[in-house]
Each structure stands twice: as C-alpha cells, then as structure tokens.
C-alpha cells in the first residue's frame, strides 16, 4: 500500500472526531479526498493507530438505532444468502435504491437476524469480526 503524503495525512487527520477516531462515513469521505479505495481505509487507519468507528450498519461503534423497517428487511432478505448475510455494499445500495437512509437500513439490520459481511472499508470480512487480514 502506498504511503500517504503530507496533504493526504492532513486531510485524514482533519476528519477525526474529538476522540481521535474516524467514523465510517468520514472514512468514505477521506478515501475520496485522498484518492484511495475505500477498502484501503482500514489498513491506512491501522497504520496510523486510528480507529474506525460508528459503522452506519450497526456492526460496531456507538450509533443509536431506531426500530426495524419491514419493507427494508424484506428487500434485504431477498439479497441475502441462505445464512441471512448481506454484503455491506448491498446494504448501502439498498439505502440508495429505496430512497431510505443508511440509518433506516442500519436500524433494520441491527434489529433483525440479518448480518453484514465484506465491509467496504476493509474493517471486517464477517460481522463476527473476522478481519480481512485473517482471510489469507
């Protein structure tokens, strides 16, 4: 992986929260700003001792979620494998396609039997926290 230059590093650092952490949403923003793929952000953050937090789908972090939305659940369920797992990217697309918000999709996942796999930022492979690094 390419080392960040000073400008890229500053762009990342200016997007940290008051605890020095990088939220899920900000990690996507920073990837775009610094010209990296979102999937590289977990490695970049780890190399800089920065924690990515507050997954918009509720896998990790301290975000508060509301109730499940049946229409979103039914749509996600159609996109899951038999084991009721849905890829992060598909869940995000669900929010875009339905005109819903990530918060509603996250609330639905958090309050249902659907689990998230393949974090787009590279934070985990499976919601049970099997990281990409362990999948070699």
UniProtKB/TrEMBL annotation:
This is ModE family transcriptional regulator. It comes from Malaciobacter halophilus.
């Amino acid at each position: 992986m390419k080392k960040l230059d000073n400008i890229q590093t500053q762009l990342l650092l200016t997007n940290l929260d008051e605890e020095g952490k990088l939220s899920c949403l900000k990690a996507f923003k920073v990837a775009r700003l610094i010209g990296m793929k979102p999937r590289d952000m977990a490695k970049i953050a780890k190399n800089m001792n920065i924690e990515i937090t507050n997954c918009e789908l509720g896998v990790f972090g301290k975000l508060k979620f509301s109730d499940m939305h049946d229409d979103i659940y039914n749509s996600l369920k159609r996109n899951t494998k038999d084991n009721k797992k849905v890829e992060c990217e598909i869940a995000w697309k669900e929010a875009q396609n339905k005109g819903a918000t990530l918060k509603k999709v996250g609330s639905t996942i958090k309050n249902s039997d659907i689990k998230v796999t393949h974090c787009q930022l590279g934070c985990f492979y499976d919601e049970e926290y099997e990281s990409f690094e362990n999948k070699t």
